[in-house]
Structure prediction request, 98 residues.
Amino acid sequence: MKALRVAVGIATIVAWSPPVRAASDPPPGAASCSGCHSAGPTAASSVSRLYGRDAGDIMTAMAGFRDGSLPATVMNRIAKGFSDDELRAIAAWLAAQK
Prediction:
């Protein structure tokens, strides 16, 4: 009987736990960054590549976009949609990319 209660308890925890992401899976929001920032700047674009950049630099830029201290056309609106924890996760993931 005790084994059944333990099994039910474990099944309940697993069922209500958030899905586990692989270390290489992007956190929510990071995939949208890759659309514009995965390639380096070209003659037609001034969008900088973020893969492999320092996570602290990415966080500083995102905070600047969010509070308006850095000029932006779109990033100010995008940055306002993320919490500090979300931005840290995105910055860490982008920094880890090659």
The CA atoms of residues 12 and 79 lie 36 Å apart.
